[in-house]
């Protein structure tokens, strides 16, 4: 009898261990099968603290809701896609204008803090526009300031243009970055833009790259001496869309979020 009881106890113990092992194995398989989904779910969300602070999610990681073509009524049918939780602008066989064209948020903003992440590709060239307004027949860069995005190392190595005011973090063609903060290709860069009245700040990976004041005598001089001199509406708007540039190169964007300034107690 004792031997039988011992045998039953051993059987029960082994059954339990087998059940636990099976459960772990099934869990591991499930995790492996949903790795991509889990990674995507880690991004393009707002924390409870961000929601309390007034942050707005501009890209949900699954759709193009809230975005459309510049000077258009809908999202581009080609040139852009949503893949793996990223908003992706695709390479366009050498066309500098890009196959899809620039896109903008449907909503307009005046004073804000914008945060996003971008993954550059080899020889990538793009930009983030802010306070963009739509003028029929004109390009977005004619009127909107641009936070430059670039594969800095490639353009400097190939001497394609004078790097001053054209590198990642610059206010394109107007203000040059005070630091070099771009991460190597293959790593995500964190972009942060603060626009509050006439005051503008560009941040890259936690480093302040550019800080300037709109509409000052110095700013007026810089604009008049730049490629924007012929465009009377450049950076004159006090409210506008957020825009992403299609310059014919592949880039990936994620975690695009914005906090309006002046609507929370902390901003007053």
The proportion of residues forming helix, as a percent range, comes to: 10-25%
Beta strand count: 13
Order of helices and strands: HHHEEEEEEEEHEEEHEE
Q: Tell me, what is the CATH class of the largest domain?
A: Mainly Beta
Residue ranges: pLDDT <50 for 5 or more in a row? 1-34
Mean pLDDT: 85
Number of domains: 2
Distance between the termini: 82 Å
Identify the overall geometry: globular
- CATH architecture tag of the largest domain: Sandwich
Which fold name is given in CATH as the topology of the largest domain? Jelly Rolls
Number of helices: 5
Residue share in β-strands? 25-35%
SSE arrangement:
Blueprint: H1 2-33, H2 35-41, H3 48-53, E1 56-57, E2 67-69, E3 80-83, E4 86-89, E5 103-105, E6 112-120, E7 125-132, E8 146-150, H4 152-157, E9 189-196, E10 199-204, E11 207-213, H5 217-224, E12 241-244, E13 251-260
If you had to describe this structure to a student in words, what would you say it looks like?
With 268 residues, this protein is α+β, with helices and mostly antiparallel strands. It folds into two domains: 1-33; 45-267, Sandwich (Jelly Rolls). It is built from five helices and 13 strands. The chain has helices at 2-33, 35-41, 48-53, 152-157, 217-224, and strands spanning 56-57, 67-69, 80-83, 86-89, 103-105, 112-120, 125-132, 146-150, 189-196, 199-204, 207-213, 241-244, 251-260. Strands 1, 3, 4, 6, 9, 10, 11 and 13 form an eight-stranded antiparallel β-sheet that branches. Strands 2-5-12-7-8 form a five-stranded antiparallel β-sheet, with no helix packed on it. β3 and β4 form a beta hairpin. The longest helix is centred in the first third of the chain and has 32 residues, at 2-33. The model is unreliable at 1-34 (pLDDT under 50).
């Amino acid at each position: 009898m004792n031997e039988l009881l011992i045998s039953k106890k051993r059987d029960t113990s082994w059954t339990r261990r087998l059940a636990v092992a099976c459960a772990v194995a099934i869990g591991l398989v499930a995790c492996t099968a949903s790795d991509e989904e889990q990674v995507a779910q880690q991004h393009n969300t707002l924390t409870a603290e961000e929601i309390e602070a007034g942050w707005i999610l501009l890209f949900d990681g699954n759709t193009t809701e809230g975005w459309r073509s510049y000077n258009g009524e809908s999202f581009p049918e080609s040139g852009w896609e949503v893949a793996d939780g990223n908003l992706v602008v695709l390479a366009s066989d050498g066309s500098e204008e890009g196959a899809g064209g620039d896109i903008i948020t449907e909503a307009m903003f005046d004073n804000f803090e914008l945060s996003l992440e971008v993954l550059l590709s080899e020889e990538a060239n793009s930009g983030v526009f802010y306070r963009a307004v739509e003028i029929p027949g004109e390009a977005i860069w004619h009127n909107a300031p641009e936070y430059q995005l670039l594969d800095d190392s490639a353009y400097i190595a190939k001497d394609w243009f004078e790097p001053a005011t054209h590198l990642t973090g610059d206010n394109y063609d107007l203000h040059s970055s005070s630091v070099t903060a771009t991460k190597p290709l293959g790593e995500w860069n964190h972009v942060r833009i603060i626009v509050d009245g006439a005051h503008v700040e560009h941040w890259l990976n936690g480093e302040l790259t550019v800080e300037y004041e709109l509409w000052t005598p110095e700013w007026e001089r810089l604009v008049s001496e730049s490629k924007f001199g012929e465009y009377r509406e450049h950076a004159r708007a006090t409210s506008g869309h957020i825009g992403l540039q299609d310059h014919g190169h592949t880039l990936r964007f994620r975690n695009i979020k914005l906090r309006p300034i002046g609507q929370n107690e902390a901003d007053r």
